[in-house]
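User: Alkyl hydroperoxide reductase. Structure?
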Amino acid sequence: MKQMLTFLMLSIFTLGCSQQVPEVLKTEFSKEALNQKLENEEGKSITVKEILSHHKGKVVVIDFWAGWCRDCLKAFPKAIELEKNNPNVDFVFFSLDRSKEGFNRSLEKFNMKEKENYWFSTGWKNDFNNYIELNWIPRYMVIDQQSKIAKYYAITPEDPEIQATIDKLLK
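Assistant: Predicted structure:
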């Protein structure tokens, strides 16, 4: 009986914690999502729309991560490799660390200071993350030169669709 209960609890936990591909793969951001505010390393507030406008005309990969996320940390070497293999693509990192102090520690600890980093000071649940149905990290999105979503859902930097999407956009 004890083993059965343990199995049941593990099954429920695993089901509740697994990534699920959204039913609709969106190609544009809502107005509310674009108006979502994040903070840069200096604590200055900036909207998603402003971040994307800084990269207008470029392909962008958004990497959602946090310093406490083991899956994110395991993915870092491949994410760095993806970045190095695509010098004509801008990489932007959206952190889901739980505090500003945690965000700053993560940037330092994982040598992220030279990268473009933003932090969701509002936490996981906000207009942007709700709109893109963020249910797990890491997650990767590819944004085209017009700030439209070209690749909506990838859970690893090794997803071949990320590179295929980048290659298609850069032709």
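The first strand starts at residue 37 and ends at 39. The mean pLDDT is 90.
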